[in-house]
Amino acid sequence: MSTKEKVVVTGFQPSGRLHIGNYLGMFKQAAAMQKEKGLKRYYFIADYHSLTQKYDPKQKSREIMEMAIDALALGIDPKKSTLFIQSHVPHHTNLAWIFNTLTPVGELERMVSYKEKVSQGQIANAGLLTYPILMAADILIYDADFVPVGEDQIQHLELTRAIARKFNQRFGKTFKEPQALLTKTPRVMSLNDPSNKMSKSIPSGCLFIFDSEAETTKKIMAAQTDSHKTIGFDPKNRPAVSNLVLIFAAFRGVSEKEIVKEFKNVGYKEFKAALAKEINSSLKPLRTRKKELMKEKSKITKLLEQNAKKMDRVASKKIEAVKSKVGLI
Ligand code: AMP
Ligand code: TRP
Protein backbone atom coordinates (compact mmCIF):
# COMPACT_ATOMS: atom_id res chain seq x y z
CA MET A 1 0.00 0.00 0.00
CA SER A 2 1.38 3.37 -1.00
CA THR A 3 1.95 5.77 1.85
CA LYS A 4 1.82 8.61 -0.63
CA GLU A 5 -1.90 8.25 -1.17
CA LYS A 6 -3.73 11.37 -0.04
CA VAL A 7 -6.87 11.05 2.07
CA VAL A 8 -10.21 12.79 1.51
CA VAL A 9 -12.70 12.80 4.40
CA THR A 10 -16.12 14.33 4.73
CA GLY A 11 -19.30 13.80 6.74
CA PHE A 12 -22.95 14.77 6.44
CA GLN A 13 -25.67 14.74 9.02
CA PRO A 14 -28.69 12.48 8.68
CA SER A 15 -31.15 15.14 9.73
CA GLY A 16 -33.67 15.81 7.06
CA ARG A 17 -33.69 16.08 3.34
CA LEU A 18 -30.73 17.07 1.20
CA HIS A 19 -30.97 20.29 -0.77
CA ILE A 20 -29.11 21.77 -3.71
CA GLY A 21 -26.83 23.68 -1.32
CA ASN A 22 -25.56 20.33 0.01
CA TYR A 23 -25.22 19.07 -3.54
CA LEU A 24 -23.50 22.08 -5.13
CA GLY A 25 -21.52 22.94 -1.99
CA MET A 26 -20.25 19.51 -1.04
CA PHE A 27 -21.52 16.28 -2.63
CA LYS A 28 -20.58 17.27 -6.17
CA GLN A 29 -17.03 17.85 -4.98
CA ALA A 30 -16.91 14.62 -2.98
CA ALA A 31 -18.12 12.72 -6.04
CA ALA A 32 -15.70 14.54 -8.36
CA MET A 33 -12.78 13.50 -6.13
CA GLN A 34 -13.55 9.93 -7.20
CA LYS A 35 -12.17 10.65 -10.65
CA GLU A 36 -8.73 11.43 -9.25
CA LYS A 37 -6.06 8.82 -8.80
CA GLY A 38 -3.95 8.32 -5.67
CA LEU A 39 -6.69 9.21 -3.20
CA LYS A 40 -8.43 7.34 -0.41
CA ARG A 41 -11.97 8.56 0.12
CA TYR A 42 -13.72 8.14 3.44
CA TYR A 43 -17.26 9.50 3.50
CA PHE A 44 -19.52 9.05 6.47
CA ILE A 45 -22.95 9.71 7.88
CA ALA A 46 -22.44 11.89 10.94
CA ASP A 47 -25.16 10.30 13.05
CA TYR A 48 -23.62 11.28 16.40
CA HIS A 49 -23.50 14.89 15.22
CA SER A 50 -27.17 14.78 14.33
CA LEU A 51 -28.12 14.02 17.94
CA THR A 52 -27.04 17.52 18.98
CA GLN A 53 -30.20 18.95 17.42
CA LYS A 54 -33.82 18.14 18.16
CA TYR A 55 -34.80 14.76 16.72
CA ASP A 56 -37.35 12.00 16.91
CA PRO A 57 -35.77 8.70 17.99
CA LYS A 58 -38.47 6.82 16.08
CA GLN A 59 -37.32 8.47 12.85
CA LYS A 60 -33.57 8.38 13.38
CA SER A 61 -32.72 4.97 11.95
CA ARG A 62 -34.82 5.68 8.88
CA GLU A 63 -33.05 9.01 8.43
CA ILE A 64 -29.63 7.36 8.69
CA MET A 65 -30.52 4.70 6.14
CA GLU A 66 -32.05 7.26 3.83
CA MET A 67 -28.94 9.42 4.04
CA ALA A 68 -26.85 6.43 2.95
CA ILE A 69 -29.19 5.95 -0.01
CA ASP A 70 -29.13 9.67 -0.83
CA ALA A 71 -25.32 9.80 -0.74
CA LEU A 72 -25.16 6.88 -3.18
CA ALA A 73 -27.81 8.51 -5.39
CA LEU A 74 -25.77 11.73 -5.40
CA GLY A 75 -22.81 9.92 -6.87
CA ILE A 76 -20.84 8.45 -3.98
CA ASP A 77 -19.60 5.25 -5.60
CA PRO A 78 -19.01 2.38 -3.17
CA LYS A 79 -16.29 1.00 -5.42
CA LYS A 80 -14.32 4.21 -5.16
CA SER A 81 -15.24 5.54 -1.73
CA THR A 82 -15.75 3.97 1.65
CA LEU A 83 -19.18 5.02 2.90
CA PHE A 84 -19.81 4.33 6.58
CA ILE A 85 -21.70 5.40 9.68
CA GLN A 86 -19.81 7.50 12.22
CA SER A 87 -21.15 5.77 15.35
CA HIS A 88 -20.07 2.38 13.97
CA VAL A 89 -16.46 3.46 14.48
CA PRO A 90 -16.25 4.35 18.18
CA HIS A 91 -12.68 5.62 17.90
CA HIS A 92 -14.04 8.91 16.57
CA THR A 93 -15.53 9.62 19.99
CA ASN A 94 -12.50 8.19 21.78
CA LEU A 95 -10.27 10.67 20.03
CA ALA A 96 -12.80 13.46 20.56
CA TRP A 97 -12.49 12.90 24.30
CA ILE A 98 -8.76 13.52 24.19
CA PHE A 99 -9.30 16.61 22.04
CA ASN A 100 -11.89 17.85 24.58
CA THR A 101 -9.11 18.13 27.08
CA LEU A 102 -7.04 20.32 24.74
CA THR A 103 -9.72 22.76 23.62
CA PRO A 104 -10.63 25.90 25.56
CA VAL A 105 -14.40 26.31 26.00
CA GLY A 106 -14.05 29.93 24.83
CA GLU A 107 -13.00 28.77 21.37
CA LEU A 108 -16.11 26.64 21.07
CA GLU A 109 -18.35 29.48 22.22
CA ARG A 110 -16.99 31.60 19.37
CA MET A 111 -18.19 29.18 16.68
CA VAL A 112 -20.70 30.96 14.43
CA SER A 113 -22.72 27.83 13.74
CA TYR A 114 -23.13 27.24 17.50
CA LYS A 115 -24.16 30.85 18.10
CA GLU A 116 -26.63 30.72 15.20
CA LYS A 117 -28.27 27.56 16.46
CA VAL A 118 -28.60 28.93 19.98
CA SER A 119 -29.99 32.22 18.69
CA GLN A 120 -32.57 30.22 16.72
CA GLY A 121 -33.80 28.87 20.03
CA GLN A 122 -32.04 25.52 20.18
CA ILE A 123 -31.09 24.25 23.60
CA ALA A 124 -27.36 24.68 24.10
CA ASN A 125 -26.64 21.11 25.14
CA ALA A 126 -22.97 20.27 25.69
CA GLY A 127 -22.92 18.22 22.48
CA LEU A 128 -23.95 21.24 20.44
CA LEU A 129 -21.05 23.16 21.94
CA THR A 130 -18.42 20.42 21.59
CA TYR A 131 -19.58 19.25 18.15
CA PRO A 132 -16.58 20.83 16.35
CA ILE A 133 -14.27 18.71 18.51
CA LEU A 134 -15.96 15.54 17.34
CA MET A 135 -15.66 16.88 13.80
CA ALA A 136 -11.93 17.43 14.33
CA ALA A 137 -11.61 13.83 15.53
CA ASP A 138 -13.59 12.56 12.49
CA ILE A 139 -11.05 14.22 10.24
CA LEU A 140 -7.76 13.86 12.08
CA ILE A 141 -8.20 10.21 12.97
CA TYR A 142 -7.77 9.37 9.27
CA ASP A 143 -4.89 11.80 8.61
CA ALA A 144 -7.08 13.59 6.09
CA ASP A 145 -5.42 15.86 3.55
CA PHE A 146 -8.61 17.24 2.02
CA VAL A 147 -12.09 17.89 3.40
CA PRO A 148 -14.85 18.82 0.93
CA VAL A 149 -17.28 21.11 2.78
CA GLY A 150 -19.51 24.13 2.30
CA GLU A 151 -18.42 27.53 3.56
CA ASP A 152 -20.35 27.22 6.82
CA GLN A 153 -17.88 24.53 7.93
CA ILE A 154 -14.70 26.53 7.33
CA GLN A 155 -14.52 27.79 10.89
CA HIS A 156 -14.77 24.21 12.15
CA LEU A 157 -11.96 23.23 9.81
CA GLU A 158 -9.81 26.03 11.22
CA LEU A 159 -10.45 24.70 14.71
CA THR A 160 -9.52 21.22 13.47
CA ARG A 161 -6.20 22.57 12.22
CA ALA A 162 -5.62 24.39 15.49
CA ILE A 163 -6.28 21.19 17.47
CA ALA A 164 -3.83 19.27 15.25
CA ARG A 165 -1.17 21.94 15.81
CA LYS A 166 -1.73 22.03 19.53
CA PHE A 167 -1.55 18.26 19.87
CA ASN A 168 1.61 18.12 17.75
CA GLN A 169 3.28 20.86 19.78
CA ARG A 170 2.52 19.22 23.06
CA PHE A 171 2.99 15.53 22.23
CA GLY A 172 5.12 15.47 19.07
CA LYS A 173 4.15 15.30 15.39
CA THR A 174 1.07 13.09 15.17
CA PHE A 175 -1.56 14.78 13.00
CA LYS A 176 -1.66 16.41 9.57
CA GLU A 177 -3.34 19.78 9.10
CA PRO A 178 -6.13 19.16 6.58
CA GLN A 179 -7.23 21.52 3.88
CA ALA A 180 -10.86 22.43 3.10
CA LEU A 181 -12.04 21.90 -0.47
CA LEU A 182 -14.66 24.42 -1.56
CA THR A 183 -16.67 24.40 -4.77
CA LYS A 184 -17.49 27.47 -6.86
CA THR A 185 -20.78 27.62 -4.94
CA PRO A 186 -19.70 27.19 -1.30
CA ARG A 187 -22.69 29.13 -0.03
CA VAL A 188 -25.94 28.73 -1.93
CA MET A 189 -28.41 31.26 -0.62
CA SER A 190 -32.09 30.81 0.22
CA LEU A 191 -34.47 31.35 -2.70
CA ASN A 192 -36.68 33.71 -0.76
CA ASP A 193 -34.09 35.47 1.39
CA PRO A 194 -30.68 35.97 -0.21
CA SER A 195 -29.21 37.19 3.08
CA ASN A 196 -29.52 33.68 4.52
CA LYS A 197 -27.91 30.49 3.28
CA MET A 198 -30.18 27.85 1.83
CA SER A 199 -31.13 25.53 4.63
CA LYS A 200 -33.83 23.06 5.48
CA SER A 201 -34.88 25.28 8.36
CA ILE A 202 -36.49 27.63 5.80
CA PRO A 203 -38.24 25.04 3.57
CA SER A 204 -39.95 27.54 1.26
CA GLY A 205 -36.58 28.92 0.12
CA CYS A 206 -34.94 25.52 0.01
CA LEU A 207 -34.79 23.34 -3.09
CA PHE A 208 -34.76 19.76 -1.92
CA ILE A 209 -33.05 17.37 -4.30
CA PHE A 210 -35.71 14.73 -4.06
CA ASP A 211 -38.69 17.07 -4.37
CA SER A 212 -40.93 16.41 -7.37
CA GLU A 213 -40.30 18.28 -10.61
CA ALA A 214 -43.50 20.24 -10.08
CA GLU A 215 -42.46 21.30 -6.58
CA THR A 216 -39.02 22.33 -7.83
CA THR A 217 -40.51 24.43 -10.62
CA LYS A 218 -42.99 26.03 -8.22
CA LYS A 219 -40.23 27.07 -5.82
CA ILE A 220 -38.04 28.48 -8.59
CA MET A 221 -40.93 30.44 -10.10
CA ALA A 222 -41.63 31.93 -6.66
CA ALA A 223 -37.97 32.76 -5.95
CA GLN A 224 -37.17 36.33 -4.98
CA THR A 225 -35.72 38.57 -7.68
CA ASP A 226 -35.42 42.36 -7.80
CA SER A 227 -36.80 45.39 -9.60
CA HIS A 228 -34.20 45.45 -12.41
CA LYS A 229 -36.23 43.19 -14.69
CA THR A 230 -33.15 41.89 -16.53
CA ILE A 231 -30.68 39.19 -15.58
CA GLY A 232 -27.34 40.28 -14.15
CA PHE A 233 -24.57 39.06 -11.90
CA ASP A 234 -23.74 41.39 -9.04
CA PRO A 235 -23.83 39.48 -5.74
CA LYS A 236 -23.38 42.61 -3.63
CA ASN A 237 -26.13 44.75 -5.10
CA ARG A 238 -28.38 42.09 -6.62
CA PRO A 239 -27.99 39.07 -4.33
CA ALA A 240 -31.26 37.28 -5.17
CA VAL A 241 -30.82 37.25 -8.95
CA SER A 242 -27.09 36.57 -8.66
CA ASN A 243 -27.84 33.52 -6.52
CA LEU A 244 -30.13 32.18 -9.27
CA VAL A 245 -27.46 32.85 -11.89
CA LEU A 246 -24.89 31.03 -9.78
CA ILE A 247 -27.18 28.04 -9.34
CA PHE A 248 -27.86 27.97 -13.09
CA ALA A 249 -24.15 28.18 -13.91
CA ALA A 250 -23.28 25.44 -11.43
CA PHE A 251 -25.89 23.04 -12.77
CA ARG A 252 -24.95 23.68 -16.37
CA GLY A 253 -21.20 23.69 -15.65
CA VAL A 254 -20.54 27.08 -17.25
CA SER A 255 -19.54 30.53 -15.95
CA GLU A 256 -21.99 33.11 -14.58
CA LYS A 257 -21.03 35.34 -17.52
CA GLU A 258 -22.29 32.80 -20.00
CA ILE A 259 -25.64 32.56 -18.23
CA VAL A 260 -26.03 36.34 -18.13
CA LYS A 261 -25.17 36.54 -21.82
CA GLU A 262 -27.62 33.83 -22.79
CA PHE A 263 -30.54 35.34 -20.88
CA LYS A 264 -29.82 39.03 -21.14
CA ASN A 265 -32.81 39.71 -23.38
CA VAL A 266 -35.46 37.78 -21.48
CA GLY A 267 -37.59 38.56 -18.44
CA TYR A 268 -37.42 36.86 -15.07
CA LYS A 269 -40.30 34.51 -15.82
CA GLU A 270 -38.64 33.01 -18.85
CA PHE A 271 -35.27 32.85 -17.09
CA LYS A 272 -36.78 31.05 -14.11
CA ALA A 273 -38.62 28.57 -16.34
CA ALA A 274 -35.30 27.75 -18.05
CA LEU A 275 -33.58 27.40 -14.67
CA ALA A 276 -36.27 25.04 -13.37
CA LYS A 277 -35.90 22.95 -16.52
CA GLU A 278 -32.11 22.84 -16.14
CA ILE A 279 -32.31 21.77 -12.49
CA ASN A 280 -34.98 19.15 -13.12
CA SER A 281 -33.08 17.61 -15.99
CA SER A 282 -29.81 17.58 -14.01
CA LEU A 283 -31.49 16.00 -11.00
CA LYS A 284 -33.53 13.47 -12.95
CA PRO A 285 -30.87 10.72 -12.95
CA LEU A 286 -30.33 11.22 -9.20
CA ARG A 287 -34.04 10.99 -8.51
CA THR A 288 -34.34 7.82 -10.59
CA ARG A 289 -31.29 6.30 -8.92
CA LYS A 290 -32.76 6.93 -5.48
CA LYS A 291 -35.90 5.00 -6.39
CA GLU A 292 -33.75 2.05 -7.48
CA LEU A 293 -31.56 2.22 -4.38
CA MET A 294 -34.62 2.20 -2.10
CA LYS A 295 -35.07 -1.42 -3.21
CA GLU A 296 -31.51 -2.34 -2.22
CA LYS A 297 -31.61 -1.58 1.49
CA SER A 298 -30.30 -4.93 2.68
CA LYS A 299 -27.35 -4.74 0.29
CA ILE A 300 -26.59 -1.22 1.53
CA THR A 301 -26.84 -2.29 5.17
CA LYS A 302 -24.24 -4.99 4.47
CA LEU A 303 -21.97 -2.51 2.73
CA LEU A 304 -22.15 -0.17 5.73
CA GLU A 305 -21.32 -3.02 8.11
CA GLN A 306 -18.31 -4.13 6.10
CA ASN A 307 -17.05 -0.60 5.75
CA ALA A 308 -17.38 0.00 9.50
CA LYS A 309 -15.03 -2.96 10.09
CA LYS A 310 -12.54 -1.60 7.59
CA MET A 311 -12.61 1.89 9.09
CA ASP A 312 -12.32 0.52 12.60
CA ARG A 313 -9.02 -1.08 11.60
CA VAL A 314 -7.75 2.20 10.15
CA ALA A 315 -8.89 4.23 13.17
CA SER A 316 -7.52 1.71 15.69
CA LYS A 317 -3.97 2.20 14.51
CA LYS A 318 -4.19 5.94 14.93
CA ILE A 319 -5.85 5.84 18.33
CA GLU A 320 -3.20 3.45 19.63
CA ALA A 321 -0.49 5.89 18.55
CA VAL A 322 -2.36 8.80 20.16
CA LYS A 323 -2.95 6.99 23.44
CA SER A 324 0.68 6.10 23.72
CA LYS A 325 1.72 9.70 23.02
CA VAL A 326 -0.48 11.07 25.77
CA GLY A 327 0.74 8.42 28.20
CA LEU A 328 -2.28 6.11 28.41
CA ILE A 329 -1.64 2.39 28.70
P1 AMP B 1 -25.23 19.32 6.61
O1 AMP B 1 -26.53 18.97 6.00
O2 AMP B 1 -25.30 20.50 7.51
O3 AMP B 1 -24.56 18.12 7.23
O4 AMP B 1 -24.32 19.78 5.41
C1 AMP B 1 -23.65 18.90 4.53
C2 AMP B 1 -22.67 19.68 3.69
O5 AMP B 1 -23.35 20.63 2.85
C3 AMP B 1 -21.67 20.52 4.50
O6 AMP B 1 -20.39 20.40 3.93
C4 AMP B 1 -22.20 21.92 4.40
O7 AMP B 1 -21.19 22.89 4.52
C5 AMP B 1 -22.79 21.93 3.00
N1 AMP B 1 -23.86 22.95 2.89
C6 AMP B 1 -24.97 23.05 3.66
N2 AMP B 1 -25.74 24.10 3.27
C7 AMP B 1 -25.09 24.67 2.22
C8 AMP B 1 -25.37 25.79 1.36
N3 AMP B 1 -26.48 26.52 1.51
N4 AMP B 1 -24.48 26.09 0.40
C9 AMP B 1 -23.36 25.34 0.22
N5 AMP B 1 -23.04 24.28 0.99
C10 AMP B 1 -23.89 23.94 1.96
N1 TRP C 1 -20.34 19.38 10.62
C1 TRP C 1 -20.69 18.92 9.31
C2 TRP C 1 -22.04 19.53 8.87
O1 TRP C 1 -22.85 19.87 9.66
C3 TRP C 1 -20.77 17.43 9.26
C4 TRP C 1 -19.49 16.80 9.63
C5 TRP C 1 -19.26 16.07 10.75
C6 TRP C 1 -18.27 16.80 8.89
N2 TRP C 1 -17.99 15.60 10.78
C7 TRP C 1 -17.36 16.04 9.65
C8 TRP C 1 -17.88 17.37 7.68
C9 TRP C 1 -16.02 15.85 9.22
C10 TRP C 1 -16.56 17.17 7.24
C11 TRP C 1 -15.65 16.41 8.02
O2 TRP C 1 -22.27 19.62 7.70
Describe what you observe in this structure.
The protein is mainly alpha-helical and 329 residues long. The chain has two domains: 6-187 and 296-326, HUPs (Rossmann fold, 3-Layer(aba) Sandwich), CATH 3.40.50.620; 203-292, Tyrosyl-Transfer RNA Synthetase (Orthogonal Bundle), CATH 1.10.240.10. Helices cover 53% and strands 7% of the residues. It is built from 13 helices and five strands. It has helices spanning 20-32, 47-50, 57-73, 91-100, 105-109, 112-119, 126-140, 154-171, 213-221, 239-252, 256-262, 268-293, 297-326; strands spanning 6-12, 39-45, 82-85, 146-148, 179-181. It has a three-stranded parallel β-sheet. A two-stranded parallel ribbon has the order 4-5. α3 (57-73) crosses α12 (268-293), α4 packs across α7 and α9 runs antiparallel to α12. The longest helix is centred in the C-terminal third of the chain and has 30 residues, at 297-326. The structure holds adenosine monophosphate and tryptophan.
The general outline is globular
- Going across the biggest sheet, name each strand in turn: 1-2-3
CATH second-level architecture of the largest domain = 3-Layer(aba) Sandwich
The span between the termini is 29 Å
CATH topology term of the largest domain: Rossmann fold
The share of residues in helices is 40-55%
- The name of the CATH superfamily of the largest domain reads HUPs
What percent strand?
Answer: 5-15%
CATH class type of the largest domain: Alpha Beta
Largest sheet: 3 strands, parallel
What structural category do the secondary elements indicate?
Answer: mainly alpha
Tally of helical segments: 13
Average predicted local confidence, pLDDT: 97
Gyration radius, in Å: 21 Å
Would you identify the regions where 5 or more consecutive residues have pLDDT less than 50?
none
Number of domains: 2
Question: What is the count of β-strands?
Answer: 5
